[in-house]
Design a protein that fits this description.
Two copies of one chain form a homodimer.
Chain A lengths: L8 H13 L2 E2 H9 L6 H13 L3 E6 L2 E6 L3 H17 L4 H10 L4 H22 L5
Antiparallel strand pairs in A: 1-3, 2-3
Helix pairs in contact in A: 1-2, 1-3, 2-3
The first copy, chain A, binds a DNA duplex (30 and 30 nucleotides) through helix 1 and helix 3.
Amino acid sequence: MVDRPALSKGEMEVARTLWEVGPATVREVFESLAENRKMDFSTVQTYLRRLETKGHATSKKEGRRRVYSARTRPRTVIRETVDDLVQRLFGGDTMPLVRHLIEDRQIDADDIFELKKLVEKLEQSADQSDKGKRK
Amino acid sequence: MVDRPALSKGEMEVARTLWEVGPATVREVFESLAENRKMDFSTVQTYLRRLETKGHATSKKEGRRRVYSARTRPRTVIRETVDDLVQRLFGGDTMPLVRHLIEDRQIDADDIFELKKLVEKLEQSADQSDKGKRK
DNA sequence: TTGACTGACGTACAATTGTACGCTTAGAAT
DNA sequence: ATTCTAAGCGTACAATTGTACGTCAGTCAA
């Protein structure tokens, strides 16, 4: 584990876009971002640079432009970010957050289905590891 | 809605403690916090002050000490914080986060039980209010 | 070849955040 | 009363973050 510095909010948005559009130039990221989020071209550039120094991206010159690629997967960043949040906000207790997500955010039918599967799977593995120490 | 400025990481920890120990003086918060998290007394003081200016706490002088009370409930802060996070990190899509929480974090038997209930309830209301309420 | 562009790169700079010191004063202990 | 202590309050200051400007160097269209 490398223990990268955490991503700031702005960096996250850029990182997300980088995941979405794959290895990309600053302009590509910039354009992909622009729809909803107004951010100056050079601001994006700065964020990408910072992502790189923080170890969350790499880049290589390709001709005269620089192409950035994500180095950490969404999964990893989620883990690092959410673990930290849960720690600070609930002292490590996961459930308040789960509760909030399920109750207060829109979850559509498909998601509910997936959720059921997830919980079932969770139940199973819990049963397993529980075996022998039941009281 | 008042749209308070978001809490920073440090502020969150102090806010959480304030929720836990109820209306409390700086020292009480400080001591409640000290266990795990080493933070200078005056740092706590500063955070409480900032919580107040951000509208997340109030205080009143009680004799010569100042007693702080939370003004926003955990629920609210969770919403504001998590919504923001989900927005930035997943463009508003909730499921990646739910998945992470269920799969990668320790959830004990009781929580699984609760989770099942939650999902069931969710299923029910989805079945019913299928015709146009929320977007 | 001369603009007009586009991109990289270095740099800037204000706001926010993390962390804490120091002065002042109201009560507590001697 | 004198001293000690704990609290408040103002202030400081470095690091990080949000945001962006200039400058210089390739590239293309006329």
